[in-house]
Amino acid sequence: MIPAWLLARTGGNLRAASISLCARCSKPILRGLDDERAALPARVDITPVDEFGEALALIQGRMTYDLIGGAQKKELELRYEWHINKPRRYPVHAAHKCWTPPLATAPSQVPAILTEAETDDIPF
């Protein structure tokens, strides 16, 4: 049982992810616990990654996490191999690694050159 004073101090949810600064590199990160039982502290980059970014993170030995929850609270949930093969339901964040460039993210807009339909017409 969790004491009332501790629940009041943490807002009632010990697993809630919160924004903070990394103690080593001072970049903004999300931090929280990664599971209900035997939880470990998780520190992830703020920016979600796409499928390619997740693959790069896993190659680098970094864990990936789903950011689950509603508007009031968000929790980090460790992604296992059976999650990676399925369609995504939540934003995916890679574990934070100091002094590394950002991983690939989904483009916000498709460049115009990729949306034009190619034709067999000769342009002259």
Explain this structure.
The structure is a single chain. This protein has a three-stranded antiparallel β-sheet, with no helix packed on it. It contains four helices and six strands. With 124 residues, the chain is of the alpha+beta class. Helices cover 19% and strands 23% of the residues. The N and C termini lie far apart (78 Å). About 7% of the residues have low confidence. A hairpin with a 6-residue loop joins strand 1 and strand 2.
Counting helices, strands and paired strands, the structural category is alpha+beta
Q: How many DSSP-defined strands?
A: 6
Distance separating the two termini: 78 Å
| Largest sheet properties | 3 strands, antiparallel
Question: How does the overall form come out from the CA principal axes?
Answer: globular
Q: How is the largest sheet built, in terms of strand order? A: 1-2-3
Mean pLDDT: 80
Approximate helicity band = 10-25%
Radius of gyration: 19 Å
Q: In a nutshell, what does this entry contain?
A:
The protein is an alpha+beta fold and 124 residues long. The chain has helices at residues 4-10, 51-59, 81-84, 112-115, and strands at 18-21, 28-33, 41-45, 64-69, 74-78, 92-94.
Provide the fold topology:
Elements: H1 4-10, E1 18-21, E2 28-33, E3 41-45, H2 51-59, E4 64-69, E5 74-78, H3 81-84, E6 92-94, H4 112-115
Antiparallel strand pairs: 1-2, 2-3, 4-5, 4-6
From the structure above, extract its key features:
globular; 3-stranded antiparallel β-sheet; 4 helices; 19% helix; 23% strand; alpha+beta
